[in-house]
Input
Amino acid sequence: MDKVVQSTAVYDRIFSEGGYQGIYDLPYRHSAYYPLFKRVLRELVRHGSKSVLEVGCGTGAFAHMVLEKSRLAYQGFDFSTVAVNRAVARTRRSYPFYVGDATAASTYEGRHFDAIVCTEVLEHVERDLEAISKWKRGTFCICSVPNFDSETHVRYFRSAEEVRSRYGQLIDIERVTLIKKPVLSDISLPNVLRALRWNRYRPRRFMEILGIGTFESIGGWFLFSGTRR
Output
């Protein structure tokens, strides 16, 4: 489902404010994106990747995890200068990050990598297929898109078949995995226990916090991987 594209200024403001409930400023282990990030890193290791380019690095949460928990050579870019500056501050490394437009061929020139990671980005990009077309053929790709709508989403997906239909022409998709999204932005143990206590008389919410519920009702991500055709 397509909507109106958002400007760079919108995302600069969102990243400056830390996102909903400060999610973009959380340590990666405390972020609701952590289950997704763990699965992405597992896929990279399974594939035997040695170097990765992250398309849409945001404030560097995934990058921080890769740099701390793996030996992968990492590079990442974002079209938001605010996001890139925050990624540098988070990881205390400036080299891996740069500002770039995912739809511009020049963004990828002179960069050496054998895998691309693009999580929670394509749904924000009006010309998403044009961006993927710039990725080098034969590159292993891991991407995610949501099954839920948001103010800044250009589109979202209702099924794995919709994902394959849109992206299968450019990526030889090997697998699509459904990952439920935590209902809390901050999944640190103290925050989860606090939320459970506050919701002990709200059975449905209580169960959702525990991750009990369907992919459709709770919301989540379609994680897909394969080789750029």
